[in-house]
Design goal:
Order of helices and strands: HHHHHHEEEHEEEH
Radius of gyration: 24 Å
Number of strands: 6
Strand content: 15-25%
Mean pLDDT: 91
Bound molecules: zinc ion
Number of helices: 8
Distance between the termini: 29 Å
Low-confidence stretches: none
Helix content: 40-55%
Structural class: alpha+beta
C-alpha cells in the first residue's frame, strides 16, 4: 500500500456553499477587524502590544474564514488557503486605509491602491513613529510594513486551514470533531520504529500500553477520531510530548507528531480502547 492510502486525506470537494460562507465571513470580519486594528495601532503605539494586535487581527479573521469552510464542508486545502490569503490581504488593506484616515485626523479616506501607495510613500520620507530613538524611514519602514502585512496574511491563511484540518466522513458528509484521548502513556523510545511498525500494520504496540505514572514528565498520547454516524471511519494519531523546564523553572511542553490520522479498523479501535 502506498503512503497516500494509509492516512486520511481530504477528498478535495469544495461544497456549493463553502466559498460563499468563507468569503462572507471573511470579508465582513476583515473590514470590521481591519478597521479596529488600525485604530488600536494608531491610538496605542506600543510596539509589543501592536505585535499582539497584528496576530489577533490575522488570527481572528483566518479563524472565521475557517469556520465558513467548516460550515460549507469545504475539504479542499488549496481553496481554503487561497481564500485565507485573499481575505488576509483585504484585512491588511483595510488596516492601511483606516490607519491613514486616523493619521490625517479623518481628512483623507483613500480607497484606491494608487492613492494609498502615493500617500504611504510621502509618509515614508520622514517616518511616522520611533522605537528606542530610531525612526524608520524609506526602505526600512517599507520592510516593517511588509512584515506586518505578511504576518496578517500568513496567519489568516494558516488559521483558516487549521480549522478544517480534521477528518471528514464522506459517507455521512460530516466533520469528525470529537477526539478520544488515551494517555498520558510512557514515553516512546523509538518514534521512527513505531511509525514504521504501525504503517506496516503491526499493532502490537497497543497490546501493552504503559501508563505514565507522572503526567508532569515527558509522555506519549494516543488519540482516535471516529465517525459516530456510520462507525466506519477511524483515524489514529500518536504524539510525543516532551516536558522541559525553561530558564524560569516553568514547565514547557513540546509536542511532536509521530503519526496523524492513520486509517484503522473498528476492531483495532476496540482493541486500543480495551487497553486504555
Ligand atoms: Zn460516517
Amino acid at each position: 500500500m502506498s503512503q497516500g492510502n494509509l492516512y486520511y486525506k481530504h477528498s478535495g470537494a469544495i461544497g456549493l456553499m463553502g466559498p460563499v460562507y468563507m468569503l462572507v465571513f471573511g470579508v465582513v470580519s476583515a473590514v470590521i477587524l481591519g478597521a479596529i486594528y488600525a485604530y488600536l495601532i494608531y491610538y496605542i503605539p506600543f510596539i509589543y502590544l501592536n505585535f499582539f494586535f497584528t496576530l489577533g487581527c490575522g488570527g481572528i479573521v483566518g479563524y472565521l474564514v475557517g469556520l465558513g469552510a467548516k460550515l460549507g464542508k469545504t475539504r479542499n486545502p488549496t481553496v481554503v488557503v487561497l481564500i485565507g490569503l485573499i481575505v488576509g490581504l483585504l484585512a491588511s488593506y483595510v488596516g492601511w486605509v483606516v490607519w491613514l484616515y486616523a493619521l490625517t485626523e479623518h481628512q483623507a479616506l483613500l480607497l484606491m491602491p494608487n492613492e494609498l501607495l502615493q500617500f504611504l510613500g510621502l509618509i515614508a520620507v520622514d517616518g511616522v513613529w520611533s522605537l528606542f530613538g530610531w525612526t524608520p524611514t524609506g526602505m526600512a519602514l517599507y520592510a516593517v510594513w511588509a512584515l506586518e502585512a505578511i504576518m496578517i496574511v500568513g496567519l489568516c491563511a494558516t488559521l483558516a486551514w487549521t480549522v478544517v484540518n480534521m477528518p471528514f466522513c464522506e459517507r455521512c458528509t460530516k466533520w469528525i470533531d470529537a477526539e478520544e484521548s488515551i494517555g498520558p502513556l510512557a514515553p516512546i523510545a523509538n518514534p521512527d520504529e513505531l511509525k514504521a511498525q504501525l504503517e506496516r500494520g503491526d499493532y502490537t504496540f497497543f497490546d501493552s500500553l504503559k501508563k505514565n505514572t507522572d503526567a508532569e514528565s515527558s509522555h506519549a498520547k494516543v488519540s482516535i477520531r471516529h465517525c459516530p454516524g456510520c462507525l466506519q471511519a477511524f483515524f489514529l494519531s500518536v504524539k510525543s510530548v516532551a516536558v522541559k523546564l525553561d530558564s524560569d523553572k516553568k514547565k514547557e511542553e513540546e509536542e511532536t507528531t509521530i503519526i496523524e490520522n492513520l486509517i484503522i479498523s473498528s476492531d483495532l479501535h476496540r482493541r486500543i480502547k480495551a487497553q486504555a
